């Protein structure tokens, strides 16, 4: 009989080799390692590269990480089936727990119904900032604390927070992300102080190129995943028009000039936005732009570009973020669209109305721009900055 061969020793579990971090990644890791307090965190995972790298950096920095994915819709889209699968795969790869929380009904009430009502009334709602406050950060923080005993949330947003002990006025202050092309602070203007104090944004000082390189360094399955559209509902339905068509019946109406002359017809004011020029279906002697959506009359009002600019705007439901509510006029830089640049303006605080106080949003103001602005759109956010610091923001009102 052949003699038994000696057994080879069983090697201990070998951790996969992770190459050295890029300079930006190394700086992010050092910030996370030096973070004060307990290093336990729930990471909001959408299944994209940004949130995936957020989790990977926190794990590499030694944090106790748990993944948290909100189930917002059924079917295709970044927040749905594909995103859930990728988020689960990232957690498996990193060796951390993954929780999926069914928020579909809450999302429908807070975002879908909100959008349908707004578009039907002739405004262009901004769902992302509302979603951040009412669906994502607030409920995520409550769930993490109540179900897992975790009091911090991390996400892949390109923004930065100076916490109260870092700022002169003791408030948590929100700053732009280092990558100006990816900065997402605009969509975070409505977060309250309590939420800001519990947020971690590991990507705030990375560029998108840094993020891709770091994701590849970690071998993340999402490293090369394409960007999703800015609005998850558009991803989900194929386009924003398809979403609106699925929720609002066709409403044929008139396209008119400012003096009331009819120049065309439309199949729903929800398909138009302030400033729009293409797709009007109107033949005229000069290009026309949408200047107003009249929900009561179901009319789209158009005019030449020279008549479309405005020198001021009324802003309500203001949330003051990095500073106390000002009592005197203030010189600010204002961003009226996510993709627009900041424009100088004078901010004049106004007394709150009874409706403001009843909604617990008692701050409003008027903006006087240094130069007339194009596409001032009711329902969109006007966000106020001083340099990199986001001071506050609110929703543009119809005068």
Question: Could you please describe the fold and organization of this structure?
Answer:
With 399 residues, the protein is of the alpha/beta class. It folds into 3 domains: 23-237, 3-Layer(aba) Sandwich (Rossmann fold), CATH 3.40.50.620; 250-305, Adenine nucleotide alpha hydrolases-like domains (SH3 type barrels); 310-397, Translation factors (Elongation Factor Tu (Ef-tu), domain 3), CATH 2.40.30. 27% of the residues lie in helices and 26% in strands. It contains 10 helices and 17 strands. The protein has helices at residues 23-33, 49-60, 81-94, 104-120, 127-148, 193-196, 208-217, 232-237, 240-247, 354-358, and strands at 40-44, 64-71, 98-102, 153-154, 159-162, 173-176, 199-200, 253-257, 262-266, 288-294, 299-304, 310-320, 330-335, 343-350, 364-373, 381-386, 389-397. The strands form 3 sheets. It has a 6-stranded antiparallel beta barrel with strand order 12-15-14-13-16-17. α2 packs across α7. The radius of gyration is 24 Å and the shape is globular. The chain starts with 22 loop residues before the first helix and ends with a strand. The relative contact order is 0.12.
Give the key terms.
alpha/beta; 27% helix; 3 domains; 399 residues; disordered N terminus; Elongation Factor Tu (Ef-tu), domain 3; Rossmann fold; six-stranded antiparallel beta barrel; SH3 type barrels
């Amino acid at each position: 009989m052949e003699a038994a061969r000696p057994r080879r020793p069983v090697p201990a579990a070998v951790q996969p080799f992770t190459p050295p971090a890029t300079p930006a990644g190394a700086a992010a890791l050092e910030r996370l390692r030096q973070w004060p307090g307990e290093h336990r965190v729930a990471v909001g995972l959408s299944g994209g590269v940004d949130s995936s790298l957020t989790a990977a950096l926190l794990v590499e920095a030694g944090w106790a990480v748990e993944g948290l994915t909100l189930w917002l819709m059924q079917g295709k889209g970044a927040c749905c089936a594909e995103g859930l699968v990728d988020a689960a795969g990232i957690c498996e790869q990193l060796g951390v727990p993954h929780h999926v929380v069914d928020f579909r009904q809450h999302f429908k009430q807070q975002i879908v119904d909100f959008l349908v009502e707004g578009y039907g009334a002739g405004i262009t709602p901004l769902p992302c900032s509302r979603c951040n406050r009412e669906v994502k950060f607030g409920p995520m923080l409550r769930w993490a604390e109540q179900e897992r005993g975790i009091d911090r949330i991390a996400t892949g947003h390109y923004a930065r927070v100076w916490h109260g002990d870092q700022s002169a006025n003791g408030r948590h202050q929100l700053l732009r992300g280092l990558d100006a092309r990816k900065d997402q602070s605009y969509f975070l203007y409505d977060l309250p102080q309590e939420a800001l104090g519990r947020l971690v944004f590991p990507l705030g000082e990375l560029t998108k190129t840094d993020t891709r390189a770091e994701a590849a360094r970690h071998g993340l399955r999402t490293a090369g995943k394409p960007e999703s559209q800015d609005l998850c509902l558009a991803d989900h339905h194929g386009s924003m028009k398809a979403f609106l068509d699925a929720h609002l019946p066709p409403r044929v109406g008139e396209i008119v000039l400012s003096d009331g002359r009819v120049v065309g017809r439309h199949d729903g004011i929800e398909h138009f936005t302030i400033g729009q020029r293409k797709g009007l279906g109107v033949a005229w002697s000069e290009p026309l732009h949408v200047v107003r959506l009249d929900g009561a009359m179901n009319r789209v009002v158009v005019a030449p570009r020279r008549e479309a600019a405005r020198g001021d705007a009324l802003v309500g439901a203001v949330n003051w973020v990095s500073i106390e509510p000002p009592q005197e006029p203030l010189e600010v830089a204002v961003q009226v669209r996510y993709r627009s640049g900041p424009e100088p303006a004078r901010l004049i605080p106004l007394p709150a109305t009874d409706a403001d106080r009843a909604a617990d949003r008692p701050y409003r103001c008027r903006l006087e721009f240094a130069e007339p602005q194009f596409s001032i759109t009711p329902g969109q956010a006007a966000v106020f900055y001083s340099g990199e610091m986001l001071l506050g923001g609110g929703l543009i009102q119809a005068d």
